[in-house]
Amino acid sequence: MQALVYTGPGTVEVLDRPKPTVQVPTDAVVRLLHASICGTDLHILKGDVPSIEPGRVLGHEGVGVVESLGSAVHTLQLGQRVLISCMTSCGACRFCQRGLAAHCITGGWTLGNKIDGTQAEYVRVPHATLSLHPLPDSIDARAAVAVSDAFPTGLECGVLSAGVQLGGSVAIVGAGPVGMAALLTARLYTPSLIVMVDLDEGRLATAHSLGAHATVVSSPDAEQKLMDLTGGQGFDSVIEAVGIPATFELCQKVVAVGGRIANVGVHGTKVDLHLERLWERNISIHMSLVNATTTSRLLRLVESNMLDISSLVTHHFPFTEAPKAYETFQAASQHKALKVAIDFT
Q: What fold is seen in the domain 2-149+291-343?
């Protein structure tokens, strides 16, 4: 088969690799229809994840067709369309039993990390019973790649962790794919005010079209504009979806008394926590990896037309142009890109 291989810092190449096979009874092999690129893949490409060595097939998001099944997998069928979860879950270890699949002892972030990932014509998926989800015929396969990671991350790490509630106020800092997914899933809880913050005015316009009540350009006066939108009270729920010190600093400044900050962004440098300002405000701060325990529910919402996922995948490329897909995603603002799909059909 052909696969997109990380060949060293800054480079990926389409190379010939052996087609994966079932290795243990709980495995499945999936023929890819569509894959996608995550911000984490860009971190790998920059050399920020030293545990991933050159030679790894990247990717942990995708939709495909079941090619072969291990003898212990009874809930799936050959030829069935499936969504590949970004987290693999054994369902039996002490972490999976607590709903913390991201820390599964034999799973978690496996694809594109510990083993070869989804940016290839075929992928072996461990713990297939809980790590693959049947994809209804009514759901567009390319759009569904956003439900592999972006939507469960936006919902679990953002909306649920921030305690978004009926009639509450929500600020989402960062209008990338996960921030947009947080916006769309926050709307399910009918808050009275959702405000999106970003540097990119094009993305803010998209956020407004997707249901944000207001948008604020990230600038020196962003704090004042955000506070003005709440009558000086701050936001009940604040979601940080960027991963740099300045954005987490802003979140601390605009959270309301009794509010909650949910950190979603991946932070690679030290961030200050201002306890001298926050200790008396009865706030909580939550940070987590996505466990993808909401994936089945998200698919049901999409199937029932209560959640529109069609807007997140803005660009797509044939697999033969996969390196170009990376170039586009690396310059997302220039290309007005959110999710970038890689098509195998």
A: Quinone Oxidoreductase; Chain A, domain 1 (3.90.180)
The rounded distance, in Å, linking the Cα atoms of 247 and 209 is 23
Q: Are 251 and 238 within 8 A, CB to CB?
A: yes
Q: Is the pTM of this model over 0.90?
A: yes
The domain spans of the chain are: 2-149+291-343, 152-287
Cβ proximity of 144 and 161 under 8 Å? no
Q: Kindly give, in sequence order, each residue whose CB lies less than 8 Å from that of residue 295, ignoring residues fewer than 6 positions away.
A: 83, 85, 133, 147, 152
Count Cβ atoms below 10 Å from residue 244 Cβ, excluding itself. 16
- 190: which 2 tokens? 């009918």
pLDDT in tens, the chain (345 residues): 999 999 998 999 999 999 999 999 999 999 999 999 998 899 888 877 888 989 999 999 999 999 999 999 999 999 999 999 999 999 999 999 999 999 999 999 999 999 999 999 999 999 999 999 999 999 999 999 999 999 999 999 999 999 999 999 999 999 999 999 999 999 999 999 999 999 999 999 999 999 999 999 999 999 999 999 999 999 999 999 999 999 999 999 999 999 999 999 988 789 999 999 999 999 999 999 999 999 999 999 999 999 999 999 999 999 999 999 999 999 998 999 999 999 998
Q: For residue 293, how far is the Cα from the chain centroid?
A: 13
Asked if the domains at 2-149+291-343 and 152-287 fall in one CATH topology, the answer is: no
Q: What is the rounded CA–CA span in Å between residue 93 and residue 78? A: 27
**CATH, range 152-287:** 3.40.50.720
Task: Identify any residues that bridge with 14 across adjacent strands, giving them in sequence order.
Answer: 4
